[in-house]
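FIELD: query
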Amino acid sequence: PEKMSEIWNSKVKPVRSDYLPYSDAINNKTIKQDHPFIAVERRKELKRLETNLQKYCNNIIIVPAQAFTRWVYNQAPAGAENSSMDPLIASSLKSELNTNSNALKIELIKAGLSEEQASIACDRLEKDSYESAKRLSEISINPNGPEDVVPTIDHQQNGCILSYKNNDFYLTSAHYNKLRELYERAGNNTSNKSEFRKALFCLLIRYE
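FIELD: result
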């Protein structure tokens, strides 16, 4: 049970439990918690990076299933040594990402790229990833950003739909109640419904 509650633990890279309202994050020039607006923008950046990786393989191969996802999730979590500007998108220097980039490079070589082609693809992906993380970091402290955006929730007979910016997630009642229970077990207060909905949305869009 304790292990399951780690989905809300900031140290294991999902939605963070040390949430700061967006307005406070702006004042502190940092975001300690995913915000729905940032989570949506991150999703766009991740899709762009994945598309770019396939392009950098020059359509010679189809990138192995889940190779990109493994590359993303093996980055250092924000706040850790050699961490990124973003909790999910890598922005560290190449020397700090060497082990993980080599793992992706090996996968690409096994799929059919030459060592040189795989190295070039990984180098380009790292540069793109840095730019994406930088862009998200700038958005997160932009004073013109959304002050307080709360996803809507539509409770239905056997579940609910959580929505924000044309991103809809359906949860069964059992799934919703379990996530709420784990959120509370991680030390959060679900009586603040808007904060719970924000955190829940960020969790769902990250693991979709």
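FIELD: remark
Helices lie at 22-28, 36-56, 67-73, 94-111, 115-140, 173-185, 193-207.
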